[in-house]
Amino acid sequence: MSFHRVFLSEEPTSDTIRLAGQEAHHLIHVLRMKPGRSLELIDGSGRLWLGKIGKIFSEQVLIVDVVLSSNLVKPAADITVIQSVCKTNRLEWILQKLTEIGITEIYLLKAQRSVVRIVEERLESKLKRWQTIIINAAKQSRRTTFPKLHKPTGLLEICQNVQSEVKLFLDPNSKSVALKKRLRHISCKSAAISIGPEGGWTEEECAIFLDYGFQSTNVGTNILRTETASIVTSAILQYELTV
To answer: Can you spell out the DSSP letters for 9-29?
Structure first.
């Protein structure tokens, strides 16, 4: 039997927790839960606690009998997605689905041909919203870990930080090698895939990829939208590295 999951902003330090904010509001006003209901508690680290509602206040919930149920469950494969920034609704959908699939790390890329430019003054509010989307997707998909989300930055900085065993960038160019072939004889536990903007990569970006050990790949002759490409390639990597 599964219980409703609640996100904790920090690790419990006792068997009693006073929950406030959005999570408490959802329990009280949306789900209308009553004292005695059992809950599962996660903080994104891979650990899972059990507890039950003790008392309900106007905007707070007292959770009692908190006990650690499972400790540090890590994803079977370490998959990193480098996603070019795109329109808000598409990007939010991508973050939701990548979380459900089981991706461990997400870099947001300011590609040279990205149509969307995020205003610096609005970045913090957007990051907060994106993190909320990730948390909700993790709860829905029964994950106990959250993908690490990096704020939008340039390609050079990202390439310098990604240390995956296999590093790929999606390129529909006829000279790129099919993803199936790239993975055919590879045995690894970590991989990174970079997804370009709707306008594709520039020659300079392709050169940077190659300089940092990325290999070009494709998933067929069809030209996919950035959100489609992101989910398709991520799902393939997840399957190949874990099954």
So the answer is: SS---SS-EEE-HHHHHIIII
Q: Which amino acid makes up residue 160?
A: Q
Sequence ranges of the domains in the chain: 4-70, 78-242
Which amino acid does the sequence have at 217? T
Q: What is the CATH number of domain 78-242?
A: 3.40.1280.10
∠ at Cα 237 (71, 105), nearest 5°? 50
Checking phi first, is residue 50 left (phi over 0); if not, alpha (psi -120 to 50) or beta?
beta
The CATH number of the domain covering residues in 4-70:
2.40.240.20
Report pTM. 0.88
Distance CA 161, CA 183 (A): 22
Sheet containing 17-19: give its strands across.
4-7, 38-42, 48-56, 61-70, 17-19
Burial classification of residue 181, based on how many CB atoms lie within 10 Å of its CB (0-12 exposed, 13-18 middle, 19 or more buried): exposed
Note the pLDDT tens digit of each residue in 162-209: 999 999 999 987 678 888 888 887 778 899 999 999 889 999 999 999
